[in-house]
Write a structure and sequence with these properties.
The protein is mostly helical. It starts with 5 loop residues before the first helix and ends with a helix. α1 runs antiparallel to α4. It has a single domain, classed as nmb1532 protein domain like (Four Helix Bundle (Hemerythrin (Met), subunit A)). The protein is elongated and about 50 Å long.
């Protein structure tokens, strides 16, 4: 089996994020299940965002064609981080929390779709096949390290 490229590696976490978002939206607000899924989604987002920024976006800053998209994606990561922080300060049983979860999940889906259907194509034009494979290895190692640190 050929090694994964960076796009395939990122899609693994994207799928996990989509599954966790769907589970969170389907859970009862204020339930233990909702809180557990929220915590898991929070950990997945943090590890993914950090590893993706370090191992994918930073190398793309070197290319004029992808610098703006990289900045935009990092900005969206920051927005999602703030949404998570806001949710942590709310009562998980409240309608406000449920609305915030919906907005977060919508933002996650928007971001993932934009990456997969627009940004990956742009990045694919500036990265060599060797770079795509090397970045995937770097990303997977960083992601795993971050998840282990989270406990």
């Amino acid at each position: 089996m050929a090694p994964m490229n960076i796009f395939e590696a990122l899609r693994v976490s994207h799928q996990t994020q989509r599954e966790l978002s769907a589970r969170l939206l389907a859970s009862k607000a204020g339930s233990d299940d909702a809180q557990q899924v929220f915590e898991e989604l929070k950990r997945e987002l943090l590890a993914h965002e950090t590893a993706e920024e370090r191992c994918f976006y930073v190398p793309l800053f070197e290319h004029d064609a992808t610098v703006d998209a990289s900045r935009h994606a990092i900005s969206e990561h920051h927005q999602m981080d703030e949404m998570v922080e806001d949710l942590q300060a709310m009562d998980p049983a409240s309608a406000q929390w449920r609305d915030g979860v919906q907005k977060l999940c919508d933002k996650i889906e928007h971001h993932l779709t934009e990456e997969e259907h627009k940004f990956f194509q742009e990045a694919g034009k500036v990265l060599t096949e060797v770079q795509k494979t090397a970045l995937a290895k770097d990303y997977e190692a960083e992601f795993t390290t971050l998840r282990v640190k989270q406990g």
